[in-house]
Design a protein that fits this description.
Helix content of chain B: 25-40%
Distance between the termini of chain B: 66 Å
Number of helices of chain B: 17
Strand content of chain B: 15-25%
Order of helices and strands of chain A: HHH
Distance between the termini of chain A: 9 Å
Oligomer: heterodimer
CATH topology of chain A: Non-ribosomal Peptide Synthetase Peptidyl Carrier Protein, Chain A
CATH topology of the largest domain in chain B: Rossmann fold
Strand content of chain A: under 5%
Radius of gyration of chain A: 12 Å
Largest sheet of chain A: none
CATH architecture of the largest domain in chain B: 3-Layer(aba) Sandwich
Number of domains of chain B: 2
CATH architecture of chain A: Orthogonal Bundle
Strand order of the largest sheet of chain B: 2-1-11-10-12-13-14-15-16
CATH superfamily of the largest domain in chain B: ANL, N-terminal domain
Structural class of chain A: mainly alpha
Number of strands of chain B: 27
Shape of chain A: globular
Largest interface: A-B, 24 and 34 residues
CATH class of the largest domain in chain B: Alpha Beta
Radius of gyration of chain B: 23 Å
CATH class of chain A: Mainly Alpha
Chain lengths: 85, 567
């Protein structure tokens, strides 16, 4: 995947996370902000994020790979997605 | 030797006066949990002892002595009193696990008002239902949760004050909003503690049942008597312990044993305001040298899943005693913790309604992995025959778990719902809604719920509440919600739905519905899976047969289907 595509995916995931899971408008979320360990997204909500990623990118992420650590930042999520694209 | 010493001896000679005497409480006198957890600890010479080590997800660390806790409780209590909050007014605590949450809890109790802790991940509808039912007068919250409060404020005429603990000066305040910043407020050295008595209401926690809306479980200040002694005898808390209760005070464990128990004993506790991650948790134990750890089976199973590799590099040798609550603790988890953490987890069983631990594997007692343990001294527990409601004396036979009423922390009623409260008692027993068996050594074993309530990760979710919320989505025609087995969380929410004409099943629609429920109710209530059906199984009278769907998920026999509607 080239840099341009990678950046587009990062932005798409980041914007979705902000839109769906962050209540406060001013909260500063970056590609490296911890999402799970910070409590922004809990283990229950992680399932909906997984469904979003699978739908959006037409991929199937095995349950064993969809771990809290693998979902803990936008950069980590994109790294995970990249393995199944 | 553990604090309880000989279990058999304590059972034989037990009286709740043991707890009353240690707390120097005399029948008929003032008893105020807020005072007992702060002022009294200072009075007995522990003012400078650390009460709380706090660490936020952003790495911010704070430390508070018992005197700091006392002053913070006074300051918040006085602020509320100056707003006009009176005894028995309900004050909702809607915050992450920040220090202000813990101090507000005490401040509310000190003025005789009722603390209504609320899980911060609750969505606006869950919040609305609970605030409306309690006719809550004030809510203490953070900016990040304000948007959810604003969405329901117009429907809550009783709610007069929205107190924001982290408002910034550049942000103007909206209707009913009040700013309170603990760091900037002048500490209140002395305040008049409201003279609450044993039966004065203290805490209102909401819990879910199979049908109807969540019910507010009303507790009183006398609950301290149970919470103090169970913390001492079951959690085995000792003077030099560093204690970590991982529960959020939005749930009863987080107040009974995340505030009241440890602080009434003058114990140092730690709070980590961060989501779950095995590495983060192990680091936290290592860093603060945690000695007593009270957690939940879901977390333990998540740690097991992370594997022993995750433990490497951390020193967990400070751990002295471990306990678990929220759902049945499987035997594998007990064996795993003994092997990798050096100590076994001790299961504890209790409910929002019981207010304190009822059945447990005690320290120094032989643990039977997978069992609930034995009743706390002074607690009469029984396994009742489901037809006669008489205790089953034969070991191994499955019955309904029940307790003889009368322990100090028993709920006093459901808020505005005495009828539902009375329904919990039959033949002089309080029915827990759980099924158990008792073995020939007197150990209790959990079998399952006696109703359709879903226990997901230790949190109870009402299928009725989720089904009702699903019907509010424009695409959903009918809905049925059941528990689905889950390796980590024991059970998760699964929804079966039919669609209204014009809508087609798709994974995008599934996601939309999941997010709809998550925002409306909470992430816990969000179906982790949605299955589209052409029609739902119903009785001839039109009632959805939830049990058939449940049986399908659990691979069980579907039983009698004679009442099933034909095509």
């Amino acid at each position: 995947m080239d840099e341009k595509n990678l950046q587009e995916i990062k932005d798409l995931v980041l914007n979705y996370v902000i839109k769906e899971y962050i209540d406060e408008e001013e909260e500063k979320i970056s590609y490296d902000t911890p999402l799970i360990s910070s409590g922004y997204i809990d283990s229950f909500s992680m399932v909906s994020l997984l469904v979003f990623l699978e739908n959006k990118f037409k991929i199937k992420i095995p349950p064993s790979k969809a771990t809290p650590d693998a979902f803990d930042s936008v950069n980590k999520i994109v790294f995970l997605i990249n393995q199944y694209l | 030797m553990s604090n309880i010493g000989s279990y058999e001896e304590k059972v034989k000679n037990f009286s709740w006066s043991i707890s009353e005497n240690e707390l120097e409480y005399e029948n008929g006198k003032i008893i105020n949990i807020g005072w007992y957890c702060s002022d009294r600890i200072c009075q007995i010479g522990k003012a400078e002892k650390v009460a709380l080590y706090y660490e936020g997800f952003d790495g911010i660390e704070k430390k508070f002595s018992f005197n700091d806790v006392r002053l913070a409780g006074n300051t918040i209590g006085t602020f509320l009193r100056n707003l006009g909050i009176k005894n028995e007014d309900r004050v909702c605590l809607y915050m992450d696990r920040i220090p202000e949450l813990y101090f507000s809890f005490l401040g509310v109790l000190k003025i005789g008002a009722i603390a209504q802790p609320m899980f911060a991940a609750f969505g606006e509808e869950s919040l609305f239902i609970r605030l409306e039912n309690a006719q809550t007068r004030a809510i203490i919250t953070q900016r990040k949760h304000l948007p959810k409060v604003k969405k329901v404020i117009d429907r809550l005429p009783s709610l007069e004050f929205i107190i924001i603990v982290d408002n910034i000066k550049s942000k103007s305040l909206g209707d009913k909003e009040v700013s309170f910043n603990l760091d900037e407020a002048s500490p209140v050295e002395k305040m008049e503690i409201f003279p609450t008595s044993a039966e004065s209401p203290s805490v209102l926690h909401y819990t879910s049942g199979t049908t109807g809306q969540p019910k507010g479980v009303k507790h009183v200040h006398y609950s301290l008597i149970s919470q103090y002694l169970t913390s001492k005898w079951v959690l085995d808390l000792r003077e030099n312990d560093i204690y970590w209760c991982t529960a959020d005070p939005g749930w009863v464990t987080g107040t009974s044993y995340g505030i009241i128990g440890p602080w009434s004993l003058g114990i140092t506790q730690c709070v980590l305001d961060a989501g779950f991650s095995a590495q983060t948790w192990y680091r936290f134990i290592d860093k603060y040298k945690i000695t007593m750890w009270y957690s939940a089976p879901t977390a333990i199973r998540s740690l097991m899943k992370a594997g022993e590799e995750a433990i490497k590099g951390f020193n967990l040798s400070s751990l002295r005693h471990l306990a678990s609550v929220g759902e049945p603790l499987n035997s594998e988890a007990v064996i795993w913790s003994e092997k990798y953490l050096g100590k076994p987890f001790h299961d504890t069983f209790w409910q929002t309604e019981t207010g304190s631990i009822m059945i447990t594997n005690f320290p120094d007692m032989k643990i039977k992995p997978g069992s609930m343990g034995k009743p706390f001294p002074g607690i009469t527990a029984a396994n009742l025959d489901p037809l006669t409601y008489e205790p089953i004396l034969e070991p191994g036979k499955i019955g309904l778990l029940a307790f003889k009423p009368g322990w100090p922390s028993m709920m006093r009623t459901y808020w505005n719902n005495d009828e539902k409260f009375r329904e919990k008692f039959i033949n002089g027993w309080y029915l827990t809604g759980d099924r158990t068996r008792i073995d020939d050594e007197g150990y209790f074993w959990f079998i399952g719920r006696d109703d359709d309530v879903i226990n997901t990760g230790g949190h109870l979710v009402s299928p009725f509440e989720v089904e009702s919320a699903l019907l509010e989505h424009p695409a959903v025609g009918e809905s049925a919600v059941v528990a689905k087995p889950d390796e980590i969380k024991m059970e998760v929410v699964k929804a079966f739905i039919t669609l209204k004409p014009g809508f087609k099943p798709s994974s995008d629609l599934e996601l939309e519905i999941m997010n709809f429920i998550r925002k409306k109710l909470s992430s816990l209530a969000m179906p982790q899976e949605i299955e589209y059906m052409d029609k739902l199984p119903k009785t001839r009278s039109g009632k959805i047969m939830r049990r058939l769907l449940h049986a399908k998920e659990w691979g069980e026999s579907i039983g009698d289907v004679s009442s099933l509607e034909n095509d």
